[in-house]
Amino acid sequence: MNEIMNELIEEIQKDSRYLSFKDKSKLLLKKETNELLERYQETLNEINDLKKYEGYIDLTSKKEELKEIKKQMTSNQDIQEYYQSYYEINRLLDHVTQIIFKDISQILDTTGYKL
């Protein structure tokens, strides 16, 4: 079974969708794009940390800042290309999973004892 799985992995790694995903992932390392992603993560973390004090402080400005960063991310071509390739490779992997495990729950008896 391991041999078959290794062959499947090799074939997926040759697939254009996987290759595209790997290429598009590199786009996120560009200075401007990477800084934008880091700002998003830092702001999100800051908001999450401050939520426990939400009754005492106003998070409106931080939430607006996060909203603005999301707008910038939406218009960033590198991020958009990455997410498009991410969704494509995940559709492929979902399809492969469905093929491999099709009807497996009906074939295998997994009934247990009722406690």
Automatic annotation (TrEMBL):
Superkingdom in the source lineage: Bacteria
Name the record gives this protein: YlbF family regulator
Xref: InterPro entries: Com_YlbF, YheA/YmcA-like_dom_sf
Organism of origin: Faecalibacillus faecis
Coiled coil: 30-76
Lineage: Bacteria, Bacillati, Bacillota, Erysipelotrichia, Erysipelotrichales
Record-linked SUPFAM superfamilies: YheA/YmcA-like
Keywords recorded for this protein, A-Z: Coiled coil
